[in-house]
Amino acid sequence: MLGFGFGRERLVAVRYSALVLVAVGSPEEVTSLEVSNRFGMTVARRVTVTALLLLLIGAHLVDLVVDSEQWPFSNYPMYSWKETQHFIESQRLLGVRADNGQEISLQPREFTEPFDQSRLAEAFKQIDRAPDAAERWSKAMPNLFDIYERRRRAGQHSGPALRGMRAYFTRHELDPEARNLEHPEHRKLLAEIMRP
Amino acid sequence: MSRLRESWERFWFEPVTASNLGICRALFYGLVLLLYGFDGFTAWGDVSKAFWFPIQLFEWLSLPVPGPSALFVVDAAWKLSLLAAALGLGTRSAAVVAFVLGIYRLGVPQNFGKIHHFDAMIVLTLGVLAFARSGDAWSLDRRFGWTQRGGATAVSGEYRWPVRAVWLIMSLVFFAAGFSKLRHGGVGWIASRSMSLILAQHAYEVANANPITHIGLWLSRYPHLCALLALVTLVTEAGYPLAMFSRRARWIFPPGMICALIGIRVMMGPTFPQFVICHLFWVPWDVVADKLRAWRAKGG
Q1: pLDDT band at A24 (very low <50, low <70, confident <90, very high)
Q2: Same domain, A168 and A98
């Protein structure tokens, strides 16, 4: 359907006549339906491609002007705000070891697959803001725990056995050496799951 | 108006041989297949709906996320289509399947809390190639005589516009990133300690991957160097579309952007291999192939 043979040009041109009007201009300019040997493409095909290109440009410009994001189009706002804070706030998942009850970081992605740290943190933020936050937390934490343990037992990661998980909101004051990475100045428990 | 139309058509449809597009196709699909070959997509089928915050596309089309077995089938079909398109086997059909399944396959993770921007460029490029006649050279279709088009000397605008459409996608993406910085941060995004703070913050494991080195943290102690880095970043992003129209700019902005993407990975963590892969469309592969052939003919 996308490949237009030269013999079908007239039929195709009629089918795309509306697009021709939109993409090329006044009706006088589109009365010629012949194949342009110069480009090796039918007029209809060139008009279709032009429409595709204008769609690409238009969709990107809409997101840029409206400052919105309609995936796969976007205004690409990452890192675009002027940063003034000498701290970093995030949401983190910690594990509670089964053997000694110690909290450990679950930062390597293998522990939280298919989530990476940034997606998991944003998901926690969204759950916390959701009107049904309590219900979501009650399902989210057991789900993360079950995935971790199932993958551990299958030998898909090297983490220790856990008896629980805790999701925290954390704030780190920026240190020149990031020495406080494991010890945020402020943290607040968002949700937890503990298994006997 | 007619001069504008003439310029437009010359820019997009000036006839070229099928060779460059054919090589771009083979490399692009092959590298995408390598990149997503083992990324654990099916695991999204196990994730609770408590994490489900659908993007508009999935909401409008009411696209569900089934269990891991069904996702495995989708994933396998997508990868087969990528392989077929890379080899140029049933290229037109494979490219359409790769695009349609790619929207779903790459879109699913975006519904779980955060949109990662790097996948979108792949989806849009798959879209362009789904409309293109990229299998007329460097393909099994050509070798087996399943396509009559695109002989060694045949030229057509069909082989030019897809490559330039991918340039357009990259230009729009990077210009948008630069424009957003000017809109939200203004000149202060460069002239303040903003970049220094961004680099320091990324030492705290907040990105999708951790920085490869501590260079970012070290650099954050030198605000003037960081401001210079911010300026170079902004110029590279906002000036990127110039590469579409100027051969000279083509030697500056795309290589500069690849360096910036590698720099981001090294100093801050975020991974953008998808953006790097799309840069292959800037290389005139037909010229490279001709030079290689000439070199081998000389007995090099």
Answers
A1: very low
A2: yes
